[in-house]
Amino acid sequence: MTRLLHRQIHAELPMAVGGRGVELFDSHGRAYIDASGGAAVSCLGHGHPDVVAALQRQAEKLAYAHTSFFTSEPAEALAERLVADAPAGISHAYLVSGGSEAVEAALKMARQYFVEKGEPQRGRIVARRQSYHGNTLGALAAGGNAWRRASFQPLLVETHHIDPCYAYRYRQPGESEEAYGRRAADALEAKLLELGPETVMAFVAEPVVGATAGAVPAAPGYLARIREICDRYGVLLILDEVMCGMGRTGTMHACEQDGVAPDLLAIAKGLGGGYQPIGAVLLSRRIFDAFAEGSGFFQHGHTYMGHPMACAAALAVQEVIARDGLLANVREMGAYLRERLEMRFADHPHVGDIRGRGLFLGLELVADRETKEPFDPALKLHARVKTQAMARGLMVYPAGGTIDGSRGDHVLLAPPFILDAPTAETIVERLGQALDAALS
Ligand code: PMP
């Protein structure tokens, strides 16, 4: 009998007792290749000696000091580093303890920004239906998943979701990527005009849609057009890179590849690589100035923000990534893994699409490759693939969501940045076996 409430949705689980490199080990001595990085978290793999040593050093020096009494070396150094590596215009970092907290803080920053600027009527947000932005009440309001939202209506932030929700061309083959990107971005403008742009504070989006869609990148030009539309109507752009950020797509931030800088950028997961709970909002100078010139500061805070242990872990993770040139490995191994997936599944009758960026790759599973007909949702194919993969010592992240209105199953791969070629091959081999077993 378990006293862990979260096991109501995960009844049958092995017990993890250790981890080393790309592998996790359970209490029966079985090894699992962590091809999902948990949920795109474990970017350095498990038990990295440099991170463990940094945590030990920090624990001996100082585990905790409340932010209303002290600042700390690791928090100052991490903020410095995050701003130095940030997209253009970012001037400060706000440190929190995870992805939902980061999105929640970004939404509150947007709200306070407009209150300080004397535009309190800007309270609504626009987001995309195919999205997940976290599970606290504000972040939940931003996400489009009807099932997650259902029990908690009315949600606290008035959100309007748009379709087409992201630049996803698999089901629009007649249209060029650029044309699809334009059409998807123009849906934002249409929604702003319908609502009255002066009532909207922010547009929220993931540059590469992760958990709800299986690594769907923005089409070329999509985010640049979104940026223009936001600027035209004075709406802030919040990018949620909680899952796709911090090197996962081969650059530090995914939006770099689109040449777009947001007003607010939410990061988490890979920031601390799973060694500590940590997240951050990177904010632009104009947001900072509005607080400074207005009521003086951002009216928010958590007991554990800027936690010295969490910051020390994040600093160590980011230092190892830079020192070992791991972003180059993300690009190289990302291309290799994708090539192996394409070779293995090119003729597979139920793999419709292989997509993503860097080591953030998704497979879309379809009942019929020709018609692109999705599987019956009742089959819960994505969950079956996960179970079959676990039985073969492989962790993959399953997702079943709506794609442009129709149901679809996806498998997300987000292995650690230290991945090598033989492990990539084993991942593809085991995934192929798991898929066939799940379909049989
Ligand atoms: N935003 C995105 C894009 C995410 O993928 C997630 C987590 N899957 C979150 C926010 C929420 O992060 P957390 O679970 O750390 O609260």
Automatic annotation (TrEMBL):
Gene Ontology MF term list: transaminase activity
Record Pfam families: Aminotran_3
Domain of life: Bacteria
SUPFAM superfamilies: PLP-dependent transferases
InterPro entries, sorted: Aminotrans_3, Aminotrans_3_PPA_site, PyrdxlP-dep_Trfase, PyrdxlP-dep_Trfase_major, PyrdxlP-dep_Trfase_small
Protein biosynthesis in keyword set: no
Keywords, sorted A to Z: Aminotransferase, Pyridoxal phosphate, Transferase
Transmembrane regions listed in the UniProt entry: none
Cofactors, names only: pyridoxal 5'-phosphate
Assigned protein family: Belongs to the class-III pyridoxal-phosphate-dependent aminotransferase family.
Protein name (database record): Aspartate aminotransferase family protein
